[in-house]
Amino acid sequence: MASDPFLLGPLPEPLGAPLVRREGREKVTGAARYAFEHTPPGCAYAWPVPATVARGRITAVDTAAALALPGVRAVLTHENAPRLAAPEDPTLAVRQDDRVPHRGWYVALAVADSLEEARAAAEAVRVSYDADGHDVRLSADHPGLYVPEVANGGYPGHRARGDFEEAYAAAPVTVDATYTVPPLHNHPMEPHAATARWHDGHLTVHDSSQGSTRVRDDLAALFALDKGDVTVTSEHVGGGFGSKGTPRPQVVLAVMAARHTGRPVKLALPRRQMPAVVGHRAPTVQRVRLGAGADGVLTALAHESDSHTSTLSEFVEQAAVPARVMYRSPNSRTTHRVTPLDVPAPSWMRAPGEAPGMYALESALDELAVALDADPVDLRIRNEPETEPDSGRAFSSRHLVECLRAGAEHFGWLPRDPRPARRREGNLLLGTGVAASTYPVLLMPSTAEAHAAADGSYRVRINATDIGTGARTVLAQVAAAALGAPEDRVRIEIGSSDLPPAFLAGGSAGTGSWGWAVHEAAAALLVRLREHQGPLPATGITATADTGQAATAPSPYSRHSFGAQFAEVQVDTLTGEVRVRRLLGVFAAGRILNSRTARSQFIGGMTMGIGMALTEGSSLDPVFGDFTESDLASYHVPASADVPAIEAHWLDEDDPHLNPMGSKGIGEIGIVGTAAAVANAVWHATGIRLRDLPLTPDKVLARRRAG
Fold this sequence. Notes:
The protein is α+β, with helices and mostly antiparallel strands. It is built from 17 helices and 28 strands. Helix 11 links the parallel strand 22 and strand 23 (490-493). Helix 11 (471-483) packs parallel to helix 12. The protein is globular and about 75 Å long. It starts with a strand and ends with a helix.
């Protein structure tokens, strides 16, 4: 229990309480304003023109027909667009030269008085190209594959311990399997959008972003401005899943157009264009080899992952990294290979690396369990390491075994006939599967300000971003706990680059990083209040905190969240359709700060995992070089009818080696093990081992017919 310095008596502890989201009413009533819903006086609209070749040069742009249309104010091309400083991210160098690095690259931008007029103008622009040959196909034998120095997140591209080849050759039981995951796309409910306005030399932008501090800094660099001359607001964001983690072309194009026309301009990317310009999860071809003794204990483990990147920049999906964390094996080799292709630049998608990597690893563990005639839950427990296998560091906390055992009990895992294709209801075959999950704890520098007003209320200011996770609510709970104050007396200001800077909403690092700074600022304010004599001044009292040094200090511990997912599926023997009947997850993710929002995050992640397993997938057309599934009619995300009653549980985990709250990230771990649990359940239902996601009816039927 905590106490408020201005109240008598104890207060209930706010951390962990299932408080309702503070902005919930605004969102359901339409009062919450998103980036495209800001319309300054005189606002114009923009519509981009994507390239129709996969590689080449622009030889001519004919804008005459577009400029002759009613309401059209400008057409920006590489010949007349404002010049930019060289960006750190090459995907932001829009309209700077005649190069076309991939199909869908923006080659022009139409600006008009209305959205309809801008779209008509964009369709009237005629672009001529000198097209080159292109290559968009990833394969395990692609001649351009190389081992990068580092993968995404700064992880070494290659790691080895012991002698894998010798140990694998000597192992009594082995698994050698290749798993493929296709390109996956971030399709947030709110498309990427921005509204830009110049006024007296100051640039104000409303952007759909996971971190407006980074957007401000990049815009200032691109347009040669002082950071103080730029304000970027991302007050409400309708999802991002990684695709809004850094600035995307829409914000640069909107600012360009506003400068060129002298009017405010807003731009929302058409959904069909998003797969080519906002990042995607790169496809992976993963070979996993496991060697074990007759007792099921691993003696050899190799995880090799191939993926593509673009010719613009290197991004390596770190799919083999989880194998360095999960299971003990004295002989291990984990390697990434990547090849640059004429494709859009890949980037983060929820749980990058862990999501595809754990699908392959956990599927291979299931295949090993079958080969050993061992229970899949028990096999994972047998291979539980005492320390992190790759580094030898102690875990700050690791309760995977407890998650597996609690999940098995909640799910009703036993008694279970391990033989496949034994349970049938008419034309339906039923099966169950399990997989483990992990995600690293990332803690990043942030700053916060806490203020006590003379009326007894509090205000906390930090440039956190709420992308639908309930950040406002949880940060208020953190501040209230530190202050010993009622939660409803704490006001939270977030979502503007004019606020104290903080890390973006990504990597499941937001709440842990922001909360640390908020806690420290609130604790410092409490000290000042206790030292103050007499009534507060009319201006109140303020305290600040900066966790830059503490958050970046090396930790002697390996810090991760862990979990276990269990799935029951039905497979229609006539149509090949797979449906999930039950899905249950148990997680060890530090202290849960709000049980309501946490449950939503776990369930949301597992829902994405169902999509990854059964419906989501894209392909690159080798002739045209573009993604064939480019909208929600062809790229199928799970709908309400596809999602069963999902259960999310967690352990009360006490980890003192993280931050003052003892919290870990929870936004991404829900997706990590789900696809493997579903795929393993499909094997148990049918006896067919499918290793190529998504598990669509055509694949099921083809394998059944092939016997």
